[in-house]
């Protein structure tokens, strides 16, 4: 069975602080993909990043960075110098196995950036 | 940039009524999905569709639900007899391939069952 755990239900920081969102996953498959999606107050799901199980290189995209560690089954997301527009619910998701499997989502972390 | 579209954005219906939620996936994508998100909860997979048939479905996707690709562009989710607990945001997604691949989501349809 697959499982994604986002232990942080809500995080509140002041603008310009750095913040890390945790994601821990469980799967028996050796090939899998991990994703982060952003859900702003308007409700849509915005794709942020995809990482496959064979690529443990960390990724940086502007103020966003992702730390994938297979040894701890974690795929954490850091926002540097946070901005009010980063306020949203962030979901970590897992896709493993063959076929058109659905994504397994975590419960999400509600990030509040205060001005 | 191509995107997934969904209509309507909000649907209100009476318990027991049938509803059809519509989606237009990204044009060169071959795999289509429906998810739901009950207010304040996580996003849950309902069903995936490829080559005009269901590929995978979750326990949530019971006999009250059905999916169809009636033409070359639309992908629909039908709920035959809505219940109060069907109230949720329903997201359509599509991906170019599988094995796995990135799924791009539409803006969602908020379904309210009274």
What does this structure look like?
The complex is a heterodimer of chains A (115) and B (114). Chain A has 115 residues and is mostly beta strands. Chain A is 0% helix and 53% strand. Chain B is built from no helices and eleven strands. Chain B has strands at 5-7, 10-13, 19-24, 31-37, 43-50, 53-57, 65-68, 75-79, 88-95, 104-105, 109-113. In chain B, the strands form two sheets. In chain B, strands 2, 4, 5, 6, 9, 10 and 11 form a seven-stranded mixed β-sheet that branches. In chain B, strands 1-3-8-7 form a four-stranded antiparallel β-sheet, with no helix packed on it. In chain B, strand 5 and strand 6 (53-57) form a beta hairpin. The model of chain B has no long low-confidence stretch (mean pLDDT 93).
Quick overview of this protein structure:
The complex is a heterodimer of chains A (115) and B (114). With 115 residues, chain A is mainly β. Helices cover 0% and strands 53% of the residues of chain A.
List the helices and strands and how they pair.
The complex is a heterodimer of chains A (115) and B (114).
Chain A: E1 3-5, E2 10-14, E3 19-21, E4 24-26, E5 32-39, E6 46-52, E7 59-61, E8 64-69, E9 74-79, E10 88-96, E11 104-105, E12 109-114
Parallel strand pairs in A: 2-12
Antiparallel strand pairs in A: 1-4, 3-9, 5-6, 5-10, 7-8, 8-9, 10-11, 10-12
Chain B: E1 5-7, E2 10-13, E3 19-24, E4 31-37, E5 43-50, E6 53-57, E7 65-68, E8 75-79, E9 88-95, E10 104-105, E11 109-113
Parallel strand pairs in B: 2-11
Antiparallel strand pairs in B: 1-3, 3-8, 4-5, 4-9, 5-6, 7-8, 9-10, 9-11
């Amino acid at each position: 069975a697959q499982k994604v755990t986002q232990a942080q239900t809500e995080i509140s920081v002041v603008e310009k602080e750095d913040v890390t969102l945790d994601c821990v996953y469980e799967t028996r498959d050796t090939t899998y993909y991990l994703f982060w999606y952003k859900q702003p107050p308007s409700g849509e799901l915005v794709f942020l990043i995809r990482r496959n199980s064979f690529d443990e290189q960390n990724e940086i995209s502007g103020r966003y960075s992702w730390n994938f560690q297979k040894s701890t089954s974690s795929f954490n997301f850091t926002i540097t110098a946070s901005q009010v527009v980063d306020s949203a619910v962030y979901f970590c998701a897992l896709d493993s196995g063959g076929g058109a499997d659905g994504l397994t989502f975590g419960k999400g972390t509600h990030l509040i950036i205060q001005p | 940039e191509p995107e997934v579209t969904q209509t309507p954005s909000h649907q209100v219906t009476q318990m027991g009524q049938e509803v059809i939620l519509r989606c237009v996936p990204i044009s060169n994508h071959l795999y289509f999905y429906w998810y739901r998100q009950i207010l304040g909860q996580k996003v849950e997979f309902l069903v995936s569709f490829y080559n005009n048939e269901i590929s995978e479905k979750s326990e949530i996707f019971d006999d009250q639900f059905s999916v169809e690709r009636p033409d070359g562009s639309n992908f629909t989710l039908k709920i035959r007899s809505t219940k109060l607990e069907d109230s949720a945001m329903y997201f359509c997604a599509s991906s170019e391939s599988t094995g796995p691949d990135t799924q791009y989501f539409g803006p969602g349809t908020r379904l309210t069952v009274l």
